[in-house]
Specification:
Elements lengths: L1 H23 L23 H10 L11 E7 L2 E6 L13 H20 L2 E7 L8 E9 L6 H8 L14 H8 L6 E5 L3 H18 L2 H9 L5 H7 L12 H10 L2 H4 L2 H15 L4 E7 L4 H18 L4 E5 L2 H4 L1 H10 L5 E10 L17 E3 L4
Length: about 375
């Protein structure tokens, strides 16, 4: 009897201690809005319009949210957009193909933001290879307001991973998303041969990647487990961006670290989540390019960003899933099974969503990727 009472008291003590730890620890997924903005805390040589435009440009998406861009400030409204090799993902993107696509998205945001403030961009391509540090020379000239609606679209854009409806996209929404670019953007509805194939190969590619240690270690390097890390780095993947909420999110923020990602249990959960994701969507959007040149990759990244800025207005969630293109075996099977007459550069899982939460991914302050340069 005494032993039973002792066990009850012990269990009760553990529960109380666990509840106390929960109440006193990191309980909340941090979103972008929760981190104080660095706006107004920029170098003195930067004009207010320059600051606003570059901050909007930096809201572009990137793999693992690495934010691989740099900006050399040559003179007012004359910059060199660069490729920061410290933010490459060599395990899953050894040729820096995805890096160039992300830089293209940055350039598209920059052009839209400049237009909203009444500037026109004059571009000069500098890079000859995906690895060149200096990518694009851009000069902004005042020309009156061109577009202002894209500012809110840039601010509210976010990647969604869950809650997708299997209802196929409506024809009017498809027309809006493709918007005159049918040669480069194709939609494969759920249930189609192409969609089923991409579902299967996405699971296979994630399985290969989850058990490829270099890729898993690279992923671990870019996960910001605690809110302290989130505030310190302002990049990478967080529990908020990965949509790990509630007690699960609390457990990750308080008890997980880099070594957790390398465990078998984490890898298995990852594959399970991927299976659930591909089983629930309206299908896939593929974005292609005519070739793999620097200019084509940058333009394809711009094209993807234009698409990303439209989906929220249609109530459509979009989830880039690039693993098929990152693993050689699945990339080859994709090109042989689905012939689009061009190179597939993006595969985007899509679906209607009931709720569209605010952006969660963090962004680095402008001073972290801006430097005073001479253009050499």
């Amino acid at each position: 009897m005494i032993r039973k009472r002792f066990i009850k008291l012990s269990v009760g003590g553990v529960v109380v201690a666990g509840c106390a730890a929960y109440l006193l620890s990191d309980r909340r997924n941090l979103r972008r809005a929760d981190i104080p903005s660095a706006e107004g805390d920029s170098p003195a040589y930067l004009r207010p319009d320059e600051e606003a435009i570059l901050l909007l440009a930096s809201l572009a998406p990137s793999g693992h949210n690495t934010q691989p861009w740099s900006v050399d400030h040559l003179e007012p409204f004359h910059w060199i957009i660069g490729n920061d090799r410290r933010r490459w993902l060599p395990a899953v993107d050894p040729s820096q193909r995805e890096t160039l696509l992300s830089l293209g998205a940055f350039l598209q945001n920059l052009e839209f933001a400049a237009g909203a403030f009444g500037y026109v961009c004059q571009w000069t391509l500098l890079a000859a290879t995906n690895q060149d540090e200096r990518v694009m020379d851009v000069r902004l000239t005042k020309n009156g307001p061109l577009n202002v609606l894209n500012i809110e679209a840039m601010k509210s854009r976010r990647t969604l991973r869950a809650g997708f409806s299997p209802e196929p996209l409506r024809h009017d929404d498809i027309a809006r998303l493709v918007s005159g670019e049918p040669d480069f953007i194709r939609y494969f509805p759920t249930g189609s041969r192409e969609s089923r194939f991409i579902d299967e190969q996405t699971v296979e590619a994630n399985l290969l990647q989850a058990y490829r240690d270099r890729a898993q270690e690279e992923l671990a390097d870019w996960i910001r487990f605690s809110s302290k890390e989130v505030r310190a780095y302002r990049d990478g993947l967080t529990t908020g961006t990965m949509e790990i909420a509630g007690v699960s999110g609390w457990a990750v923020r308080n008890f997980y670290d880099r070594t957790s990602v390398l465990k078998k249990s984490f890898r298995e959960r990852t594959i399970g989540q991927v299976r659930e994701q591909v089983a629930s969507s309206a299908g896939w959007i593929a974005i292609t390019s005519p070739d793999a040149s620097v200019a084509s990759l940058l333009e394809t990244g711009r094209r993807m960003q234009r698409l990303f800025l439209k989906v929220r207005g249609c109530g459509i969630g979009m989830h880039p899933m690039t693993q098929i293109l990152e693993e050689p075996a699945t990339r080859l099977s994709l090109s042989s099974a689905i012939d689009l007459g061009a190179r597939v550069q993006f595969l985007l899982r899509v679906g209607y969503v009931k709720d569209y939460p605010p952006p969660a991914s963090l962004r680095r302050p402008l001073s972290w990727f801006l430097r005073k340069g001479d253009g050499r």
